[in-house]
Specification:
heterodimer; A: alpha+beta; 5-stranded antiparallel β-sheet; B: alpha+beta; two-stranded antiparallel sheet
Chain lengths: 359, 198
């Protein structure tokens, strides 16, 4: 059994390089994972698509031209998200008068995740550039971790490339070559013009604006309904909820054809997915719960029936649903409104097709 | 010597050469905070070997009789010109041997993907429990995958068989559960209604 479980990594067969693991195993959306392995002369990127297919990409040390680290706002977003969750738990616990130990435990869990995020440091996205491709290394998603990995990699890369172009010659050529000289050797997928791409402000998307505004008002109405229990505020919340969902669909159609900031586009996707998944989930859950309650009080097995929203409102646990929806809708609505006013970048023009050779 | 540029990974703008120092700078276009570490390969001039023309008395390439052979294929021994020579990890191969090796999965350096049957089996056994009636189908399917692909592992990263073991045990447990359920159902059907043991 131990031999079955502890099969060693085979490294002695002819032609199969010996790999050792580098730090970084990332769990992303859709259970995607990626790992980086290092051999004597190349890097191996193992990308696990949906955990069923391993895809390998090799980056030979002699071909690596550059590593690019770009900071991302994920770090701040995670901090804000955990603070929002902690605030939501506190508000829910205060209004529903939860047990103090339960509240402290949940707040402690939020604090642990927040602390873990703070310790890991700023988030980033790392790309490796070669002559033929520029690929992302998904496991190098923190600046500190990336720098630790680079301390291991750079000596190997520089040693492998020492025969190609010595560092002194590169330094001299970098200092003497103006930016315009790269036009002669620029790759087709890069813009050849020396001037940077102008930052174009896309026309204001009223579709997105209306969607996020409706979502913000829906969230506010939900929070108002939890405190006042007014049926009118609940009806207004429902109307605004459906309006936000419909507006989200229109926003998705709009952003296919027009330039929109990435943040606004992502927020529109979140609105649509959240409205549909949340609406279907809550509706199905309470319909099943209603059938369960009727089954307890009746000998005849009840049939599945649609429960009206007003009936759901008075069923147990719906207050928590409104709390979560309210906070999420207000947060997403505010972020969406801010993102609508962010400038959108012009989509890069494809390189011109080569002219056919004249006879 | 010309130096190719490194582009911002967000807006694809070529970054000024002054930024190639490893420190964080703001992209002039999208203002993203980027840091670049460059290597001598960025300044390397890439040349394409076209193969020298054949001189009388020299060996010619198997695929280009008018070009001079510079190396022999390490797999089949055919003479190759500079254009036909494909070198991977110090081994020279001709295009035919390369294609054959890739098709027969004999070249680990060309292996670009591998299907993880152990994870498929694990998913069948675990996710099938969410809707437990379908485990009557997923459990035998998972067991089939475990038995069929037990000896198949990636040549690059063989890993461990722990996934297969867990999936196999879960599948066997689910199959045993179904067998027990059917036995109970048939036992109750066979017993007359209202009868007791006494």
């Amino acid at each position: 059994m131990s031999a079955v479980l502890m099969d060693p990594v085979v490294s002695n067969r002819t032609g199969i390089p010996r790999y050792r693991r580098l730090p970084g195993l990332r769990f992303g959306g859709g259970f995607a994972r990626a790992a980086l392995r290092i051999a004597d002369d190349h890097l191996l990127l193992c990308d696990f698509r949906m955990s069923f297919i391993e895809r390998y990409k090799r980056f030979y040390f002699r071909d690596i031209e550059a590593f690019v680290i770009r900071k991302t706002p994920v770090w701040f977003g995670a901090i804000a998200a955990w603070l929002a969750v902690a605030a939501l738990i506190y508000v829910m616990a205060s209004s529903a008068r939860w047990n103090g130990y339960v509240t402290i435990s949940l707040e402690g869990i939020c604090a642990l995740f927040l602390l873990r995020n703070l310790i890991r440091g700023p988030s980033c996205r790392t790309h490796v550039q070669t002559a033929v491709q520029t690929d992302v290394l998904p496991m190098l998603n923190r600046v500190r971790k990336t720098r630790r990995v680079f301390q291991q990699l750079f000596p190997l890369i520089q040693e492998a490339q020492a025969k190609a172009v010595p560092n002194e010659r590169l330094t001299t050529s970098v200092a003497q070559s103006p930016l315009t000289s790269t036009a002669a050797t620029a790759r087709p997928d890069q813009p050849v013009a020396a001037e940077p791409v102008s930052r174009q402000r896309a026309p204001l998307s009223f579709v997105h604006l209306g969607t996020f505004f409706a979502l913000l008002l829906a969230g506010a109405a939900a929070l108002l309904n939890v405190t006042t229990r007014s049926p009118w505020s609940f009806v207004v919340m429902l109307i605004l909820f459906f309006a936000a969902g419909l507006g989200g669909i229109c926003s998705l159609i709009f952003q296919v054809k027009h330039s929109t900031s990435r943040a606004a586009a992502a927020a529109a996707w979140l609105v649509v997915i959240g409205c549909f998944m949340g609406g279907i989930g809550v509706n199905a859950g309470y319909c099943w719960y209603d059938m369960f309650l009727r089954a307890q009080s009746s000998r005849v097995p009840p049939h599945f029936r649609q429960v009206s929203p007003l009936t759901m409102r008075v069923m147990p646990g719906f207050d928590y649903v409104l709390w979560v929806f309210g906070f999420a809708a207000v947060t997403l609505g505010l972020l969406g409104l801010i993102s609508v006013f962010m400038p959108a970048f012009a989509r890069p023009e494809p390189p011109p097709l080569p002219k056919p050779a004249t006879a | 010597m010309t130096v190719r540029s490194v582009a911002c990974t967000r807006c694809r703008t070529p970054i000024p050469l002054d930024f190639y120092d490893g420190a964080f700078h703001m992209c002039p276009t999208c203002e993203a905070s980027i840091s670049m570490h460059v290597f001598p390969a960025l300044a390397r001039e890439h040349t394409v070997e076209r193969g020298e023309p054949l001189i009388e008395g020299e060996s010619s390439c198997f695929y280009h009789p008018h070009k001079k052979a510079v190396v022999a294929c390490d797999s089949c021994g055919r003479f190759l010109c500079a254009l036909c020579d494909i070198e991977i990890s110090g081994v020279h191969r001709c295009p035919a041997c390369l294609e054959t090796g890739k098709r027969k999965q004999q070249l680990t350096t060309l292996e670009t993907q591998y299907i993880r049957y152990d994870r498929i089996a694990l998913a069948l056994t675990t996710l099938g429990l969410l809707i437990w009636p379908i485990t009557c189908i997923t459990a035998p399917a998972a067991l089939f995958l475990v038995i069929r692909f037990w000896n198949r592992r990636s040549k690059i990263l063989p890993g461990y068989r722990i996934g297969y073991v867990i999936a196999g045990l879960l599948a066997l447990a689910e199959i045993c559960g179904w067998v027990f359920l059917f036995c109970m159902m048939f036992h109750n059907v066979g017993r007359p209604h209202g009868s007791s043991r006494l």
